[in-house]
Amino acid sequence: MTAAPTPTSTAPASGSQSARQATGLLTYLLVGVYFGTVLVKSEAASWYRIQEMFRFQDFHMFGLIGSAVLTGLVTTTLLRRFGHTRDGDAVHVADKEPGWKRYVLGGGTFGLGWGLAGVCPGPVFVLLGSGVWGMLVVLAFALLGTYLYGTLRDRLPH
Question: What's the CA gap between 98 and 76, in Å, rounded?
């Protein structure tokens, strides 16, 4: 009696895949904690720094935002040229659709919320972690705005 041949597979075992997924999640968590620390230490999450920026009293936030834009340009260019996932699949960065309405309306809404709250949505969780409990109101309205956008998306200009 002969043994049945075992199928060969290039897919990793489920235990190995779970370990890889957990490692990826831990990496994202550590990068997020590091990024949050950078936001707090650079004062990007400071209401006072944001007010200084909107009043054109200090260059600090403009420098931070400019460096973020430059970093985004460089990383997007590198992703388009050399990007791939951990599994080796190519990363495709789609070009933006032409038009100005979506950018003016979206940027205006974002800027209005930023000005009213005194904080960009990025550091909301960082500020909550720092004990600024007033950010719960900002988080609630950010979630409400996201829900409303999802509900009204088909009726909005894109």
Answer: 18
User: What confidence score (pLDDT) does residue 83 get?
Assistant: 79
List 84's β-bridge partners, or say none.
90
pLDDT digits (tens, 9 = 90+) for 10-43: 555 566 778 878 888 899 899 988 988 888 888 8
Q: Tell me phi and psi for residue 90, to 5 degrees.
A: -70, 145
Q: Can you spell out the DSSP letters for the chain? A: -PPPPPPP--SPPHHHHHHHHHHHHHHHHHHHHHHHHHHHHTTTT-HHHHHHHHTT--SHHHHHHHHHHHHHHHHHHHHHHH-B-TTSPBP--PPPPP-SHHHHHHHHHHHHHHHHHTS-STTHHHHHHTT-TTHHHHHHHHHHHHHHHHHHGGGS--
CA distance 72 to 24: 22
Quick one: pLDDT band at residue 6, thresholds 50, 70, 90? very low
How does pLDDT run across 108-136, given as a tens digit for each residue?
888 888 888 877 777 888 888 888 898 89
Would you kindly state where each structural domain of the chain is located, as residue ranges?
A: 17-58+96-155
